[in-house]
Specification:
heterodimer; A: mainly beta; seven-stranded mixed sheet; four-stranded antiparallel sheet; 11 strands; 49% strand; B: mainly beta; five-stranded mixed sheet
Chain lengths: 114, 111
């Protein structure tokens, strides 16, 4: 059973470009979380989704950031018009429906904005 | 905000038991205690969780006090590979509940 897969592992974007980060959950998992980790800082919750529905987006910046988890395919975290401050590691986790147990994390995407 | 408080850092000698404390005095009756760790820049790794009974798996043991206001994660024979930041989290299990990480405890295993 493959774990949570994130790609790309490393992404370099110039200021003003768009960044798309993908997260494929574990088989059978219907819920996905996204987190951001700035260098030398903790994990900050961004958004919690289930297929075709956003459950909690209280940690998402109001502008430029969006997330989706379609019926088919991976979850996507999209950052438009990136700025240097967006440089960070972005982690996703997946879990079974409520009633399941632990959430499993991917290895992250390191975004560098130049 | 995280509902837990942990020491900022701890040291433990290799081969000894590492005991990591966590306070969660406002935990509600249906919230579970979860432990994760993050080894340098990797994705967080699930360790163990429990409600009120002590739990043990191949990685660690979790001791929860009777009043559930605090808990201790025990790594029975720490190795250098256990050097990581350890996070104690409380969350509901059978409902949609996000996972909120605090600052965690940076555990240094000393050779």
């Amino acid at each position: 059973n493959a774990g949570v897969m994130q790609n790309p592992r490393h992404l370099v974007r110039r200021r003003g470009q768009e960044a798309r980060l993908r997260c494929s959950p574990m088989k059978g998992h219907s819920h996905v979380y996204w987190y951001r980790q700035l260098p030398e800082e903790g994990l900050k919750f961004m958004v919690y989704l289930q297929k075709e529905n956003i459950i909690d987006e209280s940690g998402m910046p109001k502008e430029r950031f969006s997330a989706e988890f379609p019926k088919e395919g991976p979850s996507i975290l999209r950052i438009q018009q990136v700025v240097r401050g967006d440089s960070a590691a972005y982690f996703c986790a997946s879990s079974p429906p409520p009633g399941g147990t632990e959430a499993f994390f991917g290895q992250g995407t390191r975004l560098t904005v130049v | 905000d995280a509902k837990t408080t942990q020491p900022t850092s701890m040291d433990c000698a290799e081969g000894r038991a590492a005991n990591l404390p966590c306070n969660h005095s406002t935990i509600s009756g249906n919230e579970y205690v979860y432990w994760y760790r993050q080894i340098h820049s990797q994705g967080p790794q699930y360790i163990i969780h429990g409600l009120k009974n002590n739990e043990t798996n191949e990685m660690a043991s979790l001791i929860i006090t009777e009043d559930r206001k605090s808990s201790t994660l025990i790594l029975p024979h720490a190795t250098l590979r256990d050097t990581a930041v350890y996070y104690c989290i409380v969350r509901y299990l059978n409902r949609d509940d996000k996972i909120i990480f605090g600052k965690g405890t940076r555990l240094h295993i000393l050779p």
